């Protein structure tokens, strides 16, 4: 049985959480509610999430501060965050969201189909990454035991690697195009955000390359996917 991915919904208004659940229920994943930044951080201590939908305007710890805490933690810093906001303060406000670690920034009222489609992409990537970790773990065990990988298992691992590599290549292409556009802009915050994204993509590419057949001669060459 394939385990369902968990999606964290963070909003201080119960009616907004109810609306998000109605929109995302069609994805058939596990939806977890948090009514504050503190409650979200507590949930992240014990559970793994595919993506976080985080409201910006919340009393006490707002979305920006919550995201900063999430990105400082080793366990949670790579979880994608989609900011949701009812107020559009312009480009500076948007760049602040990206600088805080958001992968997307959506203003309310949003199109339910668009939100569902975006969340679906991150859920799919999360599930593929889980499969890749399982295959890497199995490969490590086989290498440690001196056993060759079974034919079907080897094919499945190669297929997952190829699919993730293709997805990453598409993101790399978009990031390169964004960087070229920002070269013509004087906005320091946008340039810094793009540079941070490029560093993350470089790390992901190295991790994938290390898992390719022939990248290493022993189990120690297979990186752990945390």
From TrEMBL:
Coiled-coil segments on the chain, per record: 154-188
Alphabetical keyword list: Coiled coil, Phosphoprotein
Residue ranges of domain Response regulatory in the record: 6-123
Endpoints of the signal sequence: none
Modified residues (4-aspartylphosphate): 55
Gene3D superfamilies: 3.40.50.2300
Matching InterPro entries: Bact_response_regulator (IPR050595), CheY-like_superfamily (IPR011006), Sig_transdc_resp-reg_receiver (IPR001789)
Pfam families: Response_reg
Zinc recorded as keyword: no
Protein name: Response regulator
Organism in which the protein naturally occurs: Streptomyces coffeae
Organism phylogeny: Bacteria, Bacillati, Actinomycetota, Actinomycetes, Kitasatosporales
């Amino acid at each position: 049985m394939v385990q369902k991915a968990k999606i964290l919904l963070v909003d201080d208004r119960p009616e907004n959480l109810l609306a998000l659940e109605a929109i995302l229920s069609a994805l058939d994943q596990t939806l977890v509610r948090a009514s504050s930044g503190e409650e979200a951080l507590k949930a992240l201590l014990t559970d793994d999430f595919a993506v976080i939908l985080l409201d910006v305007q919340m009393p006490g710890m707002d979305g920006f501060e919550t995201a900063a805490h999430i990105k400082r933690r080793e366990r949670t810093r790579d979880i994608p965050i989609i900011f949701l906001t009812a107020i559009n303060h312009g480009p500076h406000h948007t760049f602040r969201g990206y600088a805080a670690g958001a992968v997307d920034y959506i203003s309310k009222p949003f199109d339910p189909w668009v939100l569902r489609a975006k969340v679906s992409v991150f859920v799919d990537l999360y599930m593929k990454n889980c499969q890749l970790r399982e295959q890497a773990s199995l490969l490590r065990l086989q290498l440690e035991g001196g056993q060759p990988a079974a034919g079907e298992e080897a094919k499945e691992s190669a297929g997952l690697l190829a699919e993730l590599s293709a997805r990453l290549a598409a993101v790399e292409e978009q990031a390169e195009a964004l960087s070229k556009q920002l070269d013509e802009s004087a906005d320091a915050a946008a340039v810094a955000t793009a540079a941070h994204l490029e560093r993350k993509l470089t790390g992901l590419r190295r991790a994938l390359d290390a898992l390719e057949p022939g990248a290493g001669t022993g189990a120690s060459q297979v990186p752990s996917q945390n």
